[in-house]
Design brief:
heterodimer; A: alpha/beta; Rossmann fold; 6-stranded mixed sheet; B: 14 helices; 0% strand
Amino acid sequence: MIEVHGLTKHYGAFTAIRDVTFDVAPGQIVGFLGPNGAGKSTTMRILSCFMPASAGTARVAGYDVFTQSMDVRKRIGYLPENVPLYTDMRVGSYLDFVAEVKGVPRGVRKKRVAEAMDKCLISDVQGRLIGRLSKGYRQRVGLAQAIINDPHVLILDEPTIGLDPRQITEIRALIKSLAGEHTVLVSTHILPEVSMVCSGVIIVNKGSVVAQGPIDTLVEQFFPFSRVHVEVAAPAAAVREELGKIPGVLQITPVLTGDGSAAFAVEAARDRDIRGELFQLATQQRWPLLELRRVGMTLEEVFIRIVAGEEHGADEGAA
Amino acid sequence: MLAILKKELRLYFTTPVAYGVVFCFLLVTGYFFYSIFAFYTMASMQAAMNPQMGRDLNVTDSVLRPLFSNVSVILLLLMPLVTMRLFAEERRSGTIELLLTYPVRDGAVLLGKYLAALGLYASMLVLTLLYPGIVAYFARIEWGPLLTGYVGLLLMGATFIAVGICISSFFENQIMAGTVTFVTLLMFWVIGWSGDAVGGVWKAVLSELSIIEHYDSFAKGIFDTKDVIYYLNFNLLALFIALKSLESRRWKG
């Protein structure tokens, strides 16, 4: 549904994105991640036909964003990062205007506006000036204008930024409900959000795609380990030493605890389960075992590892 | 295009902008009309006592022409305020990013905004019809010069709007857009004056460029295609530059 190939954009001497390539399959919600200034917004602006790329091609809904811009624009809904809306207009008449500009036929326009307002839970503020709305409501008006033409593809740039926790949950639920009939590319900083909402991710750093795919695959790819959290009431140094003797243990990381107990995150090869051995070690040494559980890898860790790894590699390259 | 036009008109008339501008415009033109008409009344009373003088006295020359020339000065001051927000505001607030990703051509956006400002201006002109109406009640009025005067005003105002939109498309700051528009219009206004200093061919060139010289014949009741074409060309040029400025994001960088 979104096919991006070799996309590059220069702003003068500065290169915002370099050779960005990815695909998004129809009906998927894909998270677009990256640190600030990684080129997320630039990519989204190109996909939404706001500005052209310096090199490379991008096809959205089957049309080229540069040569068939009008065809693309008819089929997308775009929400820019800072949710620019006409603050002097009322919600209802604003959405009516957007529907007209987006070519929603006159006959169904009223119905579509009402539907979009229903979906985004803004029917109760339709008569109010957009400038007087809270941030959360504005964000939802922004989403409503994006979905009003029932687009094939939705491009949402940080849709939950600056919202309170309850509003974030609402917006997430809304985005999730759009999956299936719409293809959604959503950029965000909030990684737990991605795990909750998206089926796949694309991670960019310094203008290039550094990882992409379903979240599980990425975790496996970047964390070929199993990790166990173990906590015993014993001197930390001794515990650490004994843990190191277990065959197959790759890394031992101390975990802070409030009381005097020793807690460690122990990593071993993915297919190796060391919980049994840890239990036996504790009984042998007569350490009271307080906790023993397997810990999953989070997207945060993957993200930090990928981005930090890149930085590390780049530093080495420079040196 | 129609949607943009409707939206802009709605924005003019749901915010105080239109009412403020129309009110001030009518206030000032009303004052000028009053003083011109009062002066004319006095002059004609004197003329009644001295028939020699009365021969040169007529409504077109003594009331309408000065009124029109005053209105054109007021427009010079007022139109930049009407047009300055059209693109500058969208650029500042970022709404242009959404607007230009909707399935409308840049030209349609431009034309919609131009026509909206023109609509507001036309409604201002319609309200000033009151003044010739008052004159017509008291004296015999020549309808020809009145008509050409209004056609001229419409053309000249449209030119101001086109220049204003064009300049607004270059700025993010409304005040800057307004100021530069005003200065640009003022330069085209006074450019003819410097013609006297240089003389010769340049005098002709400079006075032909002047935005006000071309209005003069309309005010006299002369409908000259040369002047019509001047204003239309000015409009087209300004709108063309504005369009290129909008499109520049496609080839810049």
